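Dear all,

This email documents one entry for the complex benchmark we are building for the journal club exercise. For each entry we list the sequence lines for every component of the assembly. Then comes the predicted three-dimensional structure of the complex as a token string, followed by one or two observations. Please use this as the template for your own entries, and keep the labels exactly as they appear.
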Amino acid sequence: MNASLHRRLLVTAAAVTLTFGIVTALGLEAAFRESALAAQRDRLRGSVHTLLAAAEIEPDDIRMRGEVAAPRLTQPGSGLNAWVVTPDNEIAWRSPSAVGRTLSPPASRAPGAIELARRDGHFRMDYGVEWEPVTGATRRFTITVMESESAFLSQIRAFRQTLGAWLGLGAAGLRGALWLALRWGLAPLRRVASEVEAIQAGRAASIGALPPEIAQLTERINALARAERERSRRYRETLDNLAHSLKTPLAVLRGALPRRTAEDLDAAGEQLARIDRQIEYHVRRSGAGQLAGGDHAVVEPVIRRLLRALRHAHSERPRRAELDCPPGLWYAGSEDDLMELLGNLLDNAWRHARGELRISGGRCTNCQWTTPMIVLCIDDDGPGIPEAVREGCSRGDAPGPARPRRGDWTCGGP
Amino acid sequence: MRVLVIEDEAPLRGELREALGTQGFVVDEAADGDEGAYMAREYPIDLAVVDLGLPGTDGLMLIRELRTAGRDYPVLILTARSRWQEKVAGLEAGADDYLVKPFAMPELLARVQALLRRAGGWAEPVLRHGPISLDTRTEAVTVGGEPVTLTAYEHRLLAYLLHQRGRVLSKGELMEHLYADDDQRDSNVLEVFIRRLRRKLTTADGWQPIETLRGRGYRLAPPR
């Protein structure tokens, strides 16, 4: 399937943007999570130090002096709980928030050991302490602080939402910017297409200057068009020269036909006429379908030239010719071809008209073709072509003399 | 009438000379554009048949030159290229008609006659002057409806007088237009032809068609 360049680039850009967005989101979330975990650890350690600062260590008792600095440790259900555990894994003290809660399992740690774990929806820090009083024996115990991870999780959730919203907005903006950039970036390619269409339609001879990336392509297209036009010109010129070189000997032969019987003369003359018609036919065919290549002819001046020429050549047959043709009407082909097309039609109309010709032209407004077409009508007041042979005339195989009749001779051309 | 044929193909040029000669025309020939241009300007030509594809000065240039030089006799162009661009270019250059090769000689002769009639102001193929009529198609001459037999030179003389009716034609002009260059021209012989023609064309009531203007030349007399 040949998807358009624009769509391909957009799909690729969208996939890259999405991948980039996901990777970025994952990376940012991981970084945020690390940061949040570090903060959590620091908060737990801070709680431990607060407890140590408030602790009164007796040989057989451990108490906390006055109000504990962390208010949440005094509020049951606050989510922050603390215990002091003896080396025998006995609970020596629990914070007021931990009333009714069990520490499971109680964990005694060696002095200086700090262990942070995440378990059962809680963060838990076990901090091993060796207490040396001024007087008395050294005591060992472990302070355990536990905090619910719900705050941590909601923090992560909030971050994720915010990140998602901003990345989504950024992706949408990026996609829009990419669409515009692609549209602008691919404009030269669209121009190539429209300029090639103009060459085909005869409105231009070559593609104009384009960005360096496609200049090579357009130069080759221009070279191809030039070569095609040159080849067609040489071909037509060669055939013209061939026709010219054959026609004079034909004229000589015709005049030099041996004067035998009238039948012989007719047969030879007919063959010479056939040779002549074949030459004409193939020369005309050689000119058909050529790359217009920027050639176009304005219709009205060509018709006026032909009418002047006919008026001069047929001065013994004066005619009134009325021309109704928009000044800007143009034909996508050479003036030579247009003159050839109209010359025979106008000549016939002039010869067979009684006194008047009407020629009109315009753009075809309800044509079935996608390329703009013109319509030219040549109307004379002569006796016309009999109905029976009209169809044959338009196919070019009408028998006998073709006499035009009053009515339109219509031709459409690009 | 004097016709100049400018055609580089010798066989075709020969055929044109022969065909025009049998029609009573005096024919001058040129094989290339340069010679043809000279003759077209300098010779007393009544009509030129010019091939467009000439060596040297090409046909279109030749026609433009002779029109610029004020020579306004009819020109019939012969062309192998039947495209309208060439025909229109020829007519715009100053030609009066065109014929595409290969052509039938009768058609060329008919067109030559038509061009000469047009140049003489004649709309019909039958030239009439009073009781005299000359059919350019059949070369038949009648006076008052009665056929008259003329010799070739008498016919040429009458045709020229009819084409130039209203003008006084000097002996020199008549001899130039009725005789080829290499013919022996004798004004006395011309006078003999004038007399013979006058006798054959005089009507029963004594009207004589050819006037003599002493010291100036001859003219067709106004019809009664």
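Observations: Chain B has eight helices and eleven strands. The first helix of chain B runs from residue 10 to 22.
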